[in-house]
Amino acid sequence: MTNVHSYTKKVISHFKHPHNYGKLKRPDGTGEVGNVVCGDVMHLYIKIGKNKQGREIIKDIGFETYGCAAAIATSSVITDLAKNKTLTEALLLQKDDVIKTLKSLPPIKVHCSLLAVDALNEAIHDYFSKHGKPIPKALEEFHKRIEKSKCEIEDRYGEWVGEQRK
Ligand code: FES
Q1: Regarding predicted confidence, which is higher, 67 or 5?
Q2: Which fold has domain 9-158?
Q3: CA 105 – ligand 1 centroid, Å
Q4: Ligand 1 pocket: which of 7, 44, 65, 109 to mutate (most atoms <8 Å of CB)?
Q5: How far apart are CA 151 and CA 166, in angstroms?
């Protein structure tokens, strides 16, 4: 029986052998999200291609995560889920899709799956904005919230963040 506070075999497997780990060369979009309070930082890189119907898809994807086992496992899963999806499909991915793939996550670790989804959304936003593409309203609002939370973290923990960067 799985204890709700322990990791499933799937989590352990993705943590020990993460898929799509590493930075991509010349990515088309990059997402950087983090929580300096728990110390986890996630960078997600995407390369865009086209499918047979001529729709833009995530052709390649990679990540670097500095964080807990759940943060690494959820990053690994989000890259699997997003690869070869159209951008519209990728934007529909939710933390529940990540958790379902991992079978479950301890409640205290659910926010880690949110970081992975946020990083993917940010990478797609970055691609749209760098390539002069129209940005869906919900994605733009989401991006503003992420930017605001980064500023709040800097304001609240600026001194500490500065120390960590030395
Ligand atoms: S403990 Fe914060 S993302 Fe895992």
Answers
A1: 67
A2: Sufe protein. Chain: A (3.90.1010)
A3: 12
A4: 109
A5: 19
pLDDT tens digits, one per residue of 71-86: 999 999 999 999 999 9
Output the pTM of the full model: 0.89
Ligand 1 centroid – CA 112 distance (Å): 5
Under a CB-based contact definition with an 8 Å cutoff, are residues 53 and 94 in contact? no
Cβ–ligand 1 distance for 108 under 6 Å, the answer: no
Q: Does the active-site annotation cover 38?
A: yes
**Average of pLDDT values for 6-32?**
96
Are the C-beta atoms of 127 and 29 separated by less than 8 Å? yes
- pLDDT digit string (tens) for 35-72? 766 778 899 999 999 999 999 999 999 999 998 999 99
Q: How many of the other CB atoms lie within 10 Å of CB of 155? A: 9
115 lines ligand 1 (CB under 6 A): yes
CA distance 138 to 96: 19
